[in-house]
Design a protein that fits this description.
Strand order of the largest sheet of chain B: 1-2
Shape of chain A: globular
Strand content of chain A: under 5%
Low-confidence stretches of chain A: 227-231
Radius of gyration of chain B: 23 Å
Order of helices and strands of chain A: HHHHHHHHHEEHHHHHHHHHHHHH
Distance between the termini of chain A: 77 Å
Largest sheet of chain B: 2 strands, antiparallel
Low-confidence stretches of chain B: 1-15
Oligomer: heterodimer
Structural class of chain B: mainly alpha
Number of strands of chain A: 2
Chain lengths: 501, 164
């Protein structure tokens, strides 16, 4: 408690208060732009921190981080354009809600769910950081492999079009992720000697192409005229019914997001996916998931923000950045001669507790800033379709280029736009593909490590209780769907034979 | 227990949508199958290793085999494609052509020219906007994007000259 009070004293200094506000605002604006997510936002704004004090620099970057995480939700809901990987799941129900004319309540629920999830996570972080860090050390590669496999399976097996199409989509994503350098052996894979492929396919060109520009290609069929039958957008506040539907989802997702955010590699995407799948099982209306389920949207946003905050635990207490964004923040700490890890709390308590205190402040600022401003963003829907389309494509082109300053990435974006369009026409969901792409490096690394550590014994995955449980869930899900499909085909055959008679 | 399916990014099709089968329906699974086969063959060259010491090709090899098996399920029957209208497909193909043209122009002439040509083509050829409105829209959008990225985000987009 004394440490937290000291942290607030640091965070509430006029300079740090200014920078956390600036960070949240800049992060939201930059995260809102299609093609630019937290990674690009942090990378672009990192040079600005060189002249700042270490505590201020990290507080500023932390503000950008969770501001941009929220900002990415806005185009995901309004335009079906995920600003980053973790907002892909937002599009599942956020965009359908927008199509139903409920963009306002969707954005409002996003802000509220994010605030509640973030606040619960920050309280948890404050109270349990040392305990959680010790527990997280018990999670090894077999458990991480099983967790990522479960997350991917839940999306692939439950996607539209059937099990085979979902698995096909996931397989494509996993294979695309294999292009580039192998992190364990250092050898280049499937690069065809093209230097631009040595670092692999970037997530930004893939996501912008598959979701953003593929959507433009679909809109081109209708001359970019977007659906005007949205009705009145109305208030951004969710209704009482929305709140009743979502309150338990928010609570469950907060806990799920907090736990998963602690795990290496278990960032926003995994927590959103697991929370979404979990909520679908608990929901009274699971058939609405993917068609505008407010509790589904609330679950993903809450889990994502909760994990965004709890992800600081492994960074601050173990020195292990759990995702690329926090790796940049770790780099910023090192630049200021501050080494994250178990010694941070004892050697630099002002930085440790200052960051945590700034999260409380940033969380409140997100709610104060985004709820009133949401109505401004909703006005984007009034812009004529062709105008919106040309704005999207130019910003996407510039945004994709800005990540690696590579025109090759623009070509990659266009190629994935064609692939995304083709998949849509074939009734194959792009969700498993992009999630397979994101999770594949984590899965492969942990699988190979597990095999090396166990001496090639596959039983390592079932001899450890946590990984065994997670794998059992995957198998159970697969068998349930097969059984369900078999029963459905039997009923259809029976109905046909009765009809023939 | 019924397991409801998640409709991900599945818009409700309009009434005039029809499904296309035949040879074109096999194109996608054939392409994916060819890609998977290439990955599998290339993986062997990287070295698969063993379970106790997986090589660089281990993971992509087995994933590509699984993907290839799934593709085989679709190659013979094909995957029916949703067709809105012939004109709609042509407009999408036109947009692809504009994408590729803009990439070439980006390489040679920089962002502003590439973006202006791309957006002008979108406005005139696809959206059927008037010439003047299309020129104004494309130039304004490209210029504004350039200024925002250069001024506020510090991203220097490539240009042909200091002025364009």
């Amino acid at each position: 408690m004394e440490g937290l009070v000291e942290g607030f004293a640091v965070a509430l200094s006029w300079q740090n208060l200014l920078f956390v506000t600036l960070g949240v605002t800049l992060g939201t604006i930059v995260g809102l732009l299609p093609g630019l997510g937290p990674t690009a936002a942090i990378a672009l704004l990192l040079p600005l921190t060189y002249s700042l004090e270490p505590a201020t620099a990290i507080i500023f970057l932390a503000g950008i981080y969770y501001g941009s995480m929220f900002g990415g939700r806005i185009p995901a809901i309004l335009l079906n354009l995920p600003g980053d990987a973790s907002s892909v799941v937002t599009t599942f129900d956020g965009y359908p809600l927008r199509q139903q004319g409920r963009a306002g309540p969707a954005l409002g629920m996003t802000a509220i769910g994010s605030f509640i999830g973030g606040t619960i996570a920050i309280v948890g972080l404050t109270l349990f950081a040392p305990l959680v860090a010790r527990w997280a050390l018990r999670i090894g590669s077999p458990e991480m492999f099983a967790l990522t496999l479960l997350g991917l399976a839940m999306i692939a097996l439950l996607s539209s079009g059937g099990i085979a199409k979902g698995l096909l989509s996931a397989g494509i994503g996993i294979l695309i992720a294999a292009i580039g350098i192998d992190m364990i052996s250092g050898s280049y894979r499937f690069t065809l000697g093209v230097p631009e492929l040595y670092d692999g396919i970037g997530i930004v060109p893939l996501a912008v192409g598959m979701f953003g520009l593929a959507e433009l290609m679909l809109m081109a069929e209708r001359r970019f005229r977007h659906d005007t039958a949205l009705g009145k957008v109305g208030s951004v506040m969710p209704t009482r019914a929305d709140w009743v539907q979502s309150r338990m989802a928010i609570l469950r997702a907060s806990l799920i997001g907090f736990v998963i955010g602690l795990l290496p590699g278990g960032g926003g995407t995994v927590s959103s996916v697991v929370a979404y799948g979990t909520e679908k099982r608990f929901s009274k209306n699971p058939e609405l998931f993917g068609k505008g389920a407010m509790d589904g949207l609330a679950a993903t946003e809450t889990a994502d923000n909760a994990s965004s905050n709890s992800a600081f635990v492994p960074l601050l207490t173990l020195g292990v950045p759990p995702n690329p964004v926090l790796a940049l923040i770790a780099g910023a700490l090192l630049l200021h001669q501050v080494t994250p890890g178990p010694q941070l709390l004892t050697n630099h308590p002002d930085i440790f507790w200052g960051v945590i205190a700034s999260m409380y402040i940033g969380s409140i600022l997100l709610l104060i800033l985004n709820l009133p401003m949401v109505g401004v963003f909703v006005q984007v829907l009034r812009v004529p379709g062709p105008i919106l389309s040309v704005v999207i494509v130019t910003i996407a082109m510039a945004g994709v280029y800005s990540v690696r300053h590579s025109s090759f990435d623009i070509l990659v974006t266009f190629i994935f736009a064609i692939l995304g369009y083709s998949l849509r026409k074939a009734g194959i969901s792009a969700g498993p593909l992009i999630l397979g792409f994101i999770l594949a490096p984590i899965m492969e690394t942990h699988f190979r490590r597990s095999m090396i550590i166990s001496g090639g014994e596959l039983s390592v995955f079932v001899s450890r209780p946590i990984s065994a449980t997670l794998l059992a869930l995957v198998v159970l899900l697969f068998l349930s769907l097969l059984w369900d499909g078999w029963r459905r085909r039997r009923k259809e055959k029976a109905a046909e034979s009765v009809g023939a008679v | 227990m019924e397991i409801p399916r998640v409709e991900i990014l599945a818009d409700e099709p309009p009434d005039h949508v029809r499904t296309v089968t035949g040879p074109i329906a096999r194109a996608l699974p054939l392409l994916v199958g060819a890609f998977s086969a290439w990955i599998a063959i290339s993986s062997r060259g990287l070295g698969i290793g063993s379970l106790s010491s997986p090589g660089a090709g281990f993971w992509p090899f087995y994933v590509s085999l699984i993907t290839l098996v799934i593709c085989l399920r679709f190659i013979v029957p094909g995957i029916p494609l949703e067709l809105v209208s012939r004109g709609g497909v042509l407009r999408s193909v036109t947009l692809v052509g504009l994408f590729l043209l803009s990439w070439v122009l980006f390489e040679v002439l920089g962002f502003f020219v590439a973006a202006t040509v791309l957006t002008f083509g979108m406005c005139t050829l696809i959206a059927q906007m008037g010439w003047l409105k299309s020129i104004l829209t494309s130039v304004a959008t490209s210029a504004l994007t350039y200024v925002v990225f250069a001024t506020f985000l510090g991203v220097r987009l490539p240009t042909l000259t200091p002025w364009i």
